[in-house]
Amino acid sequence: MSETVEVGTGPVSRDDVLAVARHGAGVRLSADAERAVAAGRAVIEKLADDVEPHYGISTGFGALATLSIPVEDRAALQLGLIRSHAAGSGAEVETEVVRAMMLLRLSTLASGRTGVHPRTAAGYAGLLDKRLTPVVLEYGSLGCSGDLAPLAHVALALIGEGEVRGPDGDRSAAADALAGAGLTPVTLAEKEGLALINGTDGMLGQLVLALADLEQLLVEADVAAAMSVEALLGTDAVFAADLQALRPHPGQAASAANLRALLADSAIMASHRDPAACTRVQDAYSLRCSPQVHGAARDTLAHAATVADRELAAVIDNPVLTTDGRVESNGNFHGAPVAYVLDFLAIAVADLASIAERRVDRHLDAHRNAGLTPFLADRPGVDSGLMIAQYTAAGIVSELKRLAAPASVDSIPSSAMQEDHVSMGWAAARKLRRAVDGLRRVIAIEILTAARALDLRAPLGPAPATGAVRAALRDVVPGPGPDRYLAPDIERTVELLSSGALRRAAETVTGPLA
């Protein structure tokens, strides 16, 4: 781990989030962030003795905001807030999600607009830098008033309670892990408990991770579609730039350009360009409309990225310090902007997987696969070929359709009706995360299927780009032959997609794909 991300008073970037969350980069606070945090804390300490009540400083929380808290009980108030809100349940949340969430909360703390003590911000930076990841459980956030339980589990580790995962993945008591890393548990003062849990960092972190995955998968979906169009003796004429320009969506244009590049100089395509050799007037929608569907998903992704970048630039806390020194209540913790695009992406993911699965099925049906064997089997009847791989894809697509149902419309009131409308953005993020994994598996099955179909078109050869993808796949997955154990073939293809190896293989011929 050589890279270190410096967190200043401005927003962290999506690349910063990926570096810290996914690649284990270290973290440090900039000097300007340290000054801003100290200045913000000075404002809170002045207000702590004010006779006028200030929410979260000298009052209770949520529905208990009208209760005044004596000075001697305020440290206990902050400690109790973290302990009581660390009420998560269910499966453990992935390390990369927790690290993303921690970095984003630290970014808000570093703005100086939350009023935390410098030692508290430094404590978060220390946890990230030492790669100590608090154990966070799946359920507990309604996506409003912040991702409360997930962020409280993180804050619990900061104060030396709860559990963490170390750099090697081992689980241990937070107090022991902090001591082993040379870190001191933080004692929270006025306002700090709220500042640690009142943000959209969990749902935003998962959005940033999903954006990175989908940017890659959308190119890989074009690769899979190109292989299918070629193997099924489709036409690339419909991808012509002038036809695509009649409907000027940028995502559609980018996808069609990828398909043209991937299919260039294909001997298989050339073999049936003569009208006398090809009687098919139009290809099925799953082939012909690939740029329209893939392009719509690209445009959806671009919108979601815009929302993510705005959110990365946000300072979310309640109450929040203004630039002129006021401490004001607000509603910026409501997760609706992020929740909506998380749900929107889940719809796009489901449709991408759906059209890919239809192309898989077309390869396997002898009535529709332009002369290939049923199920691409070596000896149909004796062998089943890829019949059940399509079942796997269909099962995933069915689940993705269920996951496309929006979480953000399902508000459930909480906190004695004080928090009477919530975003459910965390739930939207969790289901999108599962959906992205499902999409990758469906695309893997399409590539596995299309590659076998291309093999069966021999002696005709594929395009140089699709041929390079097939060759990269054949390095780890054998070609056609008698039935064999299919699950490892699917998993190896998934790994090639995750690593970007198949995209890179195509780009050795095409240059960068958009």
Question: Which descriptors would you attach to this protein?
Answer:
514 residues; mainly alpha; Fumarase C, Chain B, domain 1; Fumarase C, Chain A, domain 2; 2 domains; three-stranded antiparallel beta sheet; two-stranded parallel sheet; 9 strands
Report on this structure.
Pathway: Amino-acid degradation; L-histidine degradation into L-glutamate; N-formimidoyl-L-glutamate from L-histidine: step 1/3. InterPro entries: Aromatic_Lyase, Fumarase/histidase_N, HutH, L-Aspartase-like, Phe/His_NH3-lyase_AS. It is an enzyme of class 4 (lyase). The protein is mainly alpha-helical. The chain folds into two domains: 4-199, Fumarase C, Chain B, domain 1; 206-510, Fumarase/aspartase (Central domain) (Fumarase C, Chain A, domain 2, Up-down Bundle), CATH 1.20.200. It has 20 helices and nine strands. The two termini are 29 Å apart.
Sketch the major β-sheet.
3 strands, antiparallel
Structural class: mainly alpha
Indicate the mean pLDDT: 94
Which CATH architecture of the largest domain?
Up-down Bundle
Distance between the termini: 29 Å
Q: How many discrete domains?
A: 2
**Share in helix:** 40-55%
The CATH homologous superfamily of the largest domain is called Fumarase/aspartase (Central domain)
Number of helices: 20
The general outline is elongated
The side-by-side strand order for the widest beta sheet comes to: 4-6-7
Return Rg in Å: 26 Å
Low-confidence parts, pLDDT < 50 over ≥5 residues? none
**What's the level 1 CATH class of the largest domain?**
Mainly Alpha
CATH-defined topology of the largest domain? Fumarase C, Chain A, domain 2
Order of helices and strands: EHEHHEHHEEHEEHHHHHHHHEEHHHHHH
- Total E-strand runs: 9
Instruction: Report the sheet-strand fraction.
Output: 5-15%
InterPro entries: Aromatic_Lyase, Fumarase/histidase_N, HutH, L-Aspartase-like, Phe/His_NH3-lyase_AS
Subcellular location: Cytoplasm
Keywords: Histidine metabolism, Lyase
GO molecular function: histidine ammonia-lyase activity
